[in-house]
C-alpha cells in the first residue's frame, strides 16, 4: 500500500463499496425478510416533518457562517470579502453533492434500517449510540489508508 493507494482503482472500488455498503446490505436484509424493498425505500423518504424544519436545516448553516463572519470582523479586526463566502448557488449544489456522493447514500442503511431495527429493542438514545459506534467502525479503515480522506 503506497501513498497513492487511496486514489487507485482499488481505492475507488473501496470508496464506492463504503458508500453503498450499508444501503445495499439493508436492502438485502429487507428483501430476505420478505418485506418489499420498494415500500421500505419509499418509507425512508416520506415527509413526516413539517417543511419549516427543512427550511431551518438549510438556513441555519448560512446564518452560522454569517455570524462567524461578523464575529471575525468585530472581535478580530478581520476582513470578509465576497470571494470568501460560498455563493448562493454553490451551497445547494454542494449540499446535493454531499447527499448523493458524500455519505448520503449510506443513510438509508444507517437511519432507514439499522436505527429503526435497534429502536424496536432499545431506547432511542441507546439505539443512536449503537448506530454511532457501528458507523465509526465502518469509517475507521480509511484512517489507516494513506491518501484517503
Automatic annotation (TrEMBL):
Signal sequence residues: none
One protein family per Pfam: Rce1-like
Domain annotation CAAX prenyl protease 2/Lysostaphin resistance protein A-like: ranges: 92-142
Biological process, per Gene Ontology: CAAX-box protein maturation
Positions of transmembrane segments: 12-32, 53-76, 88-105, 117-138
GO molecular function annotations of the record: endopeptidase activity; metallopeptidase activity
Keywords: Hydrolase, Membrane, Metalloprotease, Protease, Transmembrane, Transmembrane helix
Superkingdom: Archaea
Membrane in keyword set: yes
InterPro entries in the record: Rce1/LyrA-like_dom
Protein's name according to its UniProt entry: CPBP family intramembrane metalloprotease
